[in-house]
Specification:
This protein has 178 residues and is α+β, with helices and mostly antiparallel strands. Helices cover 33% and strands 22% of the residues.
């Protein structure tokens, strides 16, 4: 899977962003700060602000798998005292920049789970079905989420049985899209 920041802010990217926030998406350089961890953007950005001033800015990292789908992941970047935005969190694949969509309606709250938002690229029936299955899977697994959870939960036998065909079909669809 090649999921990374969109190469350009084109009409499709803008349309996806518009369903999430009225803000304009912008590219933000990735410059991991010392002692930061992957997937801890909220903690990393707040720690950077404590050390160097500025603040954490909340919104969404926008990812794209060309020809398949767009995905928005709840994210935070550091806004320096001079208002420069920097993603201080190491990113998988080590992109030089991310596409960030500020969203003042989506502050970080450790008691609130914000699922990734997905939308298929136009004309891809495999991606559309995959995203429907992601939603079905999330409807089952979300009931197990608790604030601060760092490990996968043990699903009930009934839910394992419901998840098995979903996971199987998702694997088939991913293979078909590669």
């Amino acid at each position: 899977m090649i999921l990374g920041p969109p190469q350009q802010i084109d009409a499709a990217t803008r349309a996806f962003c518009a369903i999430i926030s009225a803000s304009e998406p912008l590219y933000v350089r990735v410059e991991p700060a010392p002692d930061t961890k992957v997937a801890y953007c909220f903690d990393n950005s707040v720690a950077q602000a404590r050390l160097h001033g500025g603040e954490a800015l909340y919104g969404w990292a926008i990812w794209h798998w060309p020809g398949r789908w767009f995905e928005a992941e709840h994210h935070a970047v550091w806004r320096s005292p001079t208002c420069e935005l920097v993603d201080v969190t190491p990113q998988t694949g080590e992109p030089a920049r991310i596409l960030f969509l500020p969203d003042p309606t989506a502050p970080y709250d450790p008691t609130t789970f914000r699922a990734n938002i997905l939308a298929p690229d136009a004309g891809n029936p495999h991606a559309r079905e995959y995203i429907e299955l992601v939603a079905a899977r999330s409807a089952i697994t979300r009931a197990y989420w608790e604030p601060g959870m760092d490990i996968l939960p043990l699903f009930s036998p009934e839910d394992r049985a419901r998840l098995a065909p979903i996971d199987l079909r998702m694997g088939e669809l991913l293979a078909a899209m590669r």
